[in-house]
Amino acid sequence: MSRIEEIMTSSPVIPVIVIDDLADAVPMAKALLSGGLKVLEVTLRTEHGLAAIRKIKQELPEAIVGAGTVISAEDAENSVAAGAEFLVSPGHTDELVDRALALGVPILPGVATPSEAMKMLAKGIRHLKFFPAEAVGGLKVLKAIAGPLPQLRFCPTGGINPEKAIDYLAQNNILCVGGSWMLEKGDIADKNWAAIESKAREAASLAG
Ligand SMILES: O=C(O)C(=O)C[C@H](O)[C@H](O)COP(=O)(O)O
User: In what residue span(s) does the Response regulatory domain sit (predicted)?
Assistant: First the structure.
């Protein structure tokens, strides 16, 4: 099994983390891990992304930490230097994907169409993020793609909630789903890590 497949199958849900306050990084990651979600995607959407990856790796070595919203080759380099074990991108460019391959770091490039998926397959990449999942047709699209492109495996992300996650996870070509539903803004503002842990526990128990 490839490393990216190991990561995708070690947890049904990959939480998509946005860090607005660096002090939240470790307690938030701890709550997710305690709830049973050990694969974490820390996005580079805010200025704290890289520092958060470094801190979580240092303090919670049992977490499998990846970088999300990786959109350039430079982001890929910086993420690996910060300790990211895998990369996730909302879409893909040749420059980004070729750099990740050269660095030897697993990457889940974002695709939304069969042509994009075929482009990645031509580079030897069979594991993909399907984004923005719900907005581009959701499960129906991945069921349809499974016919002509059965070798692909997906992590749909975008607009997914626990009910939808169950349906996605029941589909053969879907190994896990990504989402931010367990990280509600109000809970983060209140530093209500117990609430986040309990939503993480529910997510970790989802199965299709
Ligand atoms: O930041 C990125 O790289 C993205 O591609 C976007 C995220 O994956 C989605 O925003 C998560 O989806 P929601 O669960 O709808 O919040």
Answer: 1-104
